[in-house]
Design goal:
Length: 440
């Protein structure tokens, strides 16, 4: 083996991991399947391609993503350095020239003598080679099949579904009522259905045309975020005991058999989201089926529900605290595959996987990120046992209860001050590693 570790995936996490490892003197074989195998979204064969927006979030330390970027800078993130060099004026937001950014990341990788590039699709876990898996939300189908077999079907999610948003003015107020299942009644507008209306709605959902990126056999949804038509398919009554249950509402019409709840999506209350009604139905079908609800007969959509590929593992079940796969020693996961969401979050978990794998391979003490840092909160989130695992971006609400006050009361400046102190300490520790030690 002419290298110390293999990194699979040259997106944000994989590029950060490869460049961080090289900085520590660890040689890397970086696998990237593009351009031989394309994803549905990437457009180039460059490393570090930003697949959508050019914003990396705020710069302010009060903002969780701002703090995360500051932590990454202190830790010497090569990806953030490329972002700094590609920055565009965009007010308080940190926006970059996407082309310049990915060109810089690509140049850094191509010119690094410790990184050898292999343009190939990785299909099978090979535990004889230390490996960082950073294949992201669009992990290739063959590798997904392999991960499902090796990690267990219940630990791998393939899709995320999003619920539609509608204009509040298009809801029929005569056919709806304000009430919540606890909390302020004014927070939810409820669209009731009678028994007949409910079953007609369910049957329409069961037969409606879906918009699916792949064949139904390949589908695997996150159970906590099932599309409404998928729930309907599991039984005529599943929805009325699930997201459309009418219980807990203090006031409701006598013939209310099931209910669809609408929740404000902006401060003004002009846009409402359909609670728990994420969907993968074709657009025309969303219009047709939702208009069967009396209160939504004239519904106007702000955004249609949609489904998108988002592969991620159930971190708490399959990852150790150092992001190693519990069932495969010396294979680490990194980036969005771990269950974080966002460019900077993925970069952060690429950097952490690099430090952890370097520590293991070289026998250094592992750098531990506490929950008093934003990076540590992300690591904690993807590895802490929970019933309801759903990908997250960086935010102050990740703070575990025992570690401090919850989001509203968090003194963000104080949190950031402590976080940056701790990260400086970790950066100093890593600086002191004797990177001339040979890999084991
Ligand atoms: C459609 C979409 C839009 C998004 N928009 C945003 C946004 O606007 N802002 C934001 O902050 N986040 C966004 N995200 C979320 C996420 O942060 C990014 O997708 C981010 O790029 C994830 O980083 P990553 O390194 O984990 O994965 P990626 O950046 O996707 O990198 C993974 C790499 O692995 C390669 N690969 C996959 N399978 C294999 C294989 N078997 N062998 C070899 N190589 C392989 C891929 O080609 C890719 O280059 C979006 C996600 C999606 C799916």
């Amino acid at each position: 083996m002419g290298f110390d570790i293999r990194v699979v995936g040259g997106g944000l996490a994989g590029s950060e991991a490869a460049l961080s490892l090289a900085r520590l003197g660890v040689s890397v074989e970086l696998w990237e399947m593009r351009p031989l195998r394309k994803t549905d979204i990437h457009e180039t064969d460059r490393f570090g391609e930003l697949v959508c927006s050019n914003s990396l979030g705020s710069e302010a330390l009060r903002d969780a993503r701002g703090l995360l970027k500051a932590e990454l800078r202190l830790l010497g993130s090569a990806v953030v350095a490329c972002a700094d060099a590609s920055r565009l004026p965009a007010g308080k937001a940190f926006a970059v020239d996407k082309n310049q950014f990915s060109r810089l990341v690509t140049q850094s990788i191509q010119s690094n003598p410790l990184i050898s590039i292999r343009r190939e699709e990785y299909r099978q876990l090979d535990s004889s080679v230390p490996t960082i898996l950073a294949t992201g939300p669009l992990t290739s189908p063959d590798l997904l099949v392999e991960l499902r077999e090796r990690l267990g079907r219940e630990n791998l999610f393939f899709y995320d579904a999003v619920a539609p948003s509608i204009w509040a003015h298009s809801v029929d107020r005569e056919s709806s009522f304000l009430s919540s299942r606890g909390g302020d009644a004014a927070d939810y507008l409820n669209c009731p259905l009678t028994r007949e209306e409910y079953y007609a709605f369910v049957h329409a959902l069961q037969s409606a045309r879906r918009h699916l990126p792949v064949s139904p056999n390949e589908q695997k949804y996150f159970e906590g975020c099932l599309p409404v038509e998928e729930i309907a398919r599991r039984g005529d009554d599943a929805l009325r005991f699930g997201p459309m249950r009418p219980i807990g509402l203090r006031e409701r019409p006598d013939d209310c058999f099931a209910v669809i709840q609408l929740r404000k999506e902006n401060r003004e209350g002009t846009v409402l989201g359909l609670v728990g009604l994420q969907t993968s139905l074709a657009i025309a079908e969303q219009q047709r089926v939702l208009a069967m609800i009396p209160a939504l007969r004239n519904v106007e959509f702000v955004r249609y529900g949609l489904i998108h590929r988002n592969a991620f593992v159930r971190g708490p079940s399959v990852l150790s605290q150092d992001l190693q796969l519990k069932s495969f020693e010396r294979i680490w996961a990194a980036g969005q595959l771990c269950g974080v969401d966002g460019y900077m979050e993925s970069t952060a978990l690429g950097l952490v996987a690099a430090l952890n794998s370097a520590a293991t391979l070289r026998g250094f003490p592992r750098a531990v990120f506490s929950v008093h840092t934003m990076t540590g909160l992300l690591v904690d989130f993807v590895t802490r046992e929970t019933d309801d695992f759903q990908p997250t971006n960086a935010n102050y609400g990740l703070l575990p209860l025992e570690a401090g006050p919850k989001q509203k009361a968090v003194d963000r400046e104080a949190f950031a001050f402590v976080a940056l102190e701790q990260i400086r300490h970790i950066a100093d520790e890593v600086e002191g590693w004797d990177t001339n030690k040979t890999a084991r």
